Amino acid sequence: MSSTPPRRPAASAPTAVVVGAGPNGLAAAALLAEAGVDTTVLEAADTIGGGTRTDEAILPGLLHDHCSAVHPLAVASPVLRRLRLDRHGLRWRLPEIDCAHPLDDGTAAVLHRSVDATADGLGADAARYRALLAPSVRRWEELSTDVMGPLLRLPDHPLLLARFGLPTVLPAAVLARLFRTPGARALWAGVAAHAYRPLTDPLSSAIGLGILTAGHAAGWAVAEGGSRAVTDALAAVLRGHGGRIETGVRVTDHRRLPPADVTLLDLDPAQAARIYGDRLPSRTAAAYRRFRRGPGAFKVDLAVEGGVPWRAEAARRAGTVHLGGPFAEIVRAERAVTDGRMPERPFVLVGQQYLADPTRSVGDVHPVWTYAHVPHGYDGDATDAILARLEQFAPGVRDRIVGLRVTRPADFAAANPNFAGGDILTGAKTVPQLVLGARPALDPYATGLPGVYLCSAATPPGPGAHGMSGAGAATAALRHLGLRPPRG
């Protein structure tokens, strides 16, 4: 580590306040501080990170990620790469297999980092899978800034973006017709289900194709030492440029904010509307109050002795496992949770981050991260449904569980108000909100108040630990200050 003291902004430097220390707030603050802006971050919780936190609640030394856990979009993020988080201790680790989707016959559809290796395992669908993904994966370096930025702007590579974007407008259920094998259709549905939308909706292919393309380009990586390593590295960049972070500061009224030339809000639109009240332009306030929330997450962290005894051998080597069954079952489950009904067999995601990062385990006890898609604000108990899903594809797993912790939708919201109702995506990914963010505007980060910007996952490009929503808002704020983002 260098002994050089942090560079402090000049006494006459412009000032910024960032409310919220999630990955977007921290990325925005780091960019502002790097550009010479005197930047302070205010965080309501006692620990920073938002969805990128890690703890040891079940067993000392056993590391479970609070929310965001597997990071293909973060590894591929232009802003995180530019901030050189590796200089501040962030190490990405890749599993042998990115994702497995077990089927009822004991086999599994398998997602490898390589497009060719994945296609080779899909039999009759190999050529179609290559045709869909390979062109965009080959050009991801050029494509990533356009894909991970606001849609309502002139792209840097319009033809590339058009080639990528045309399939994304389709409902995931329609795009699934491209495939003929049950394995390929189930694998695609499991990835598309990350959008928390009915797979019959327009644009429900967008998030799934984004995850697949970024994942093939960069891998479904985890952060060594837990997702908090992403948070710690962003905070180190910020502090290295003289920025400050204050925890335990809950902002409920704009009049209690310290004076600043620009203010960025890593908050959901409802919180922004409450803080600024009548100061917001009426159209902005109305849009923020209309902002729709999506289904919730019900999470069960497990301590499993010896790991999960999957029937499908590939699942034993996969960092992520999707438990959704065949294509039609996933379609039914995602429609149910959007309609407010708890499915009997919910879609369940399983994270086995320890396979890529053994530092998370304690001896032969391993952290297994699971959550089910449930209706918004669900107040029931989905623990048995999740464990039943595990037992369906890994008989005997209950006998290996030596500890567990449940996080209900209300618990997510209590720990992070951006996750109201357990909506960990910070908003339903409907067509208007996916394209426009929190409100219709050429600048999706602008609130209509000069110098005040929204930078949460409610703004493009949406959820993930990639920091790109923060980067978009920071760019708008720097433009307002008459500054340019640093290059390099």
Task: Briefly characterize the structure.
It comes from Streptomyces termitum. By secondary structure, the chain is an alpha/beta fold.
Model description:
The chain has helices spanning 23-34, 72-75, 78-82, 115-120, 126-138, 140-147, 158-168, 172-175, 182-192, 206-218, 228-240, 269-276, 282-290, 327-338, 383-393, 409-415, 431-436, 468-480; strands at residues 15-19, 38-43, 54-55, 64-65, 92-93, 97-102, 108-111, 222-223, 244-247, 262-265, 296-305, 318-323, 348-351, 365-374, 401-407, 452-454. The protein is an alpha/beta fold and 488 residues long. The protein folds into two domains: 15-90 and 223-291 and 419-480, FAD/NAD(P)-binding domain; 92-128 and 166-221 and 294-415, Alpha-Beta Complex (Polyamine Oxidase, Chain A, domain 2). It has a seven-stranded mixed beta sheet, sandwiched between helices. A five-stranded parallel beta sheet has the order 9-2-1-10-16, covered by helices on one side. Strands 3-4 form a two-stranded antiparallel ribbon. The radius of gyration is 21 Å and the shape is globular. The two termini are 21 Å apart.
